[in-house]
Amino acid sequence: MLKSTNVSATNSFNLMKLLYLLLAIAGSIAPWFWLLQDPTALVSPTLFFQKAFANNIAIALTNDLLISAVAFFCLAWMELKRLRVSRWWMLVYIGLTFGVGLSCALPFFLYRRELSNK
């Protein structure tokens, strides 16, 4: 039988905040590790998109990422409004998404949301 644990809301809050921050850091390193393996694709948007849509697997992953990014932007916009946080933060999240990756922008957004939910 499973025993109930008595984890306080504060500990849970701190653990989630730490997890989101660690994921944002990992999400800023991992995509760039792979992108820097072929720096020529970074200087040519045409080559970048050619490689992003090179085969069916790449197309599926690229489409999944684009749809996830749009859903994330909708979520972020509504959460910023709900939390009464300046919507100028959308520029940060959009910049992180397209400049680093959704794997950085989404956990960073969740980290900032945890800070706002005190």
From TrEMBL:
InterPro entries in UniProt: DUF2834
Protein name: DUF2834 domain-containing protein
Keywords: Membrane, Transmembrane, Transmembrane helix
Transmembrane domains' residue ranges: 18-37, 57-78, 90-111
Organism: Merismopedia glauca CCAP 1448/3
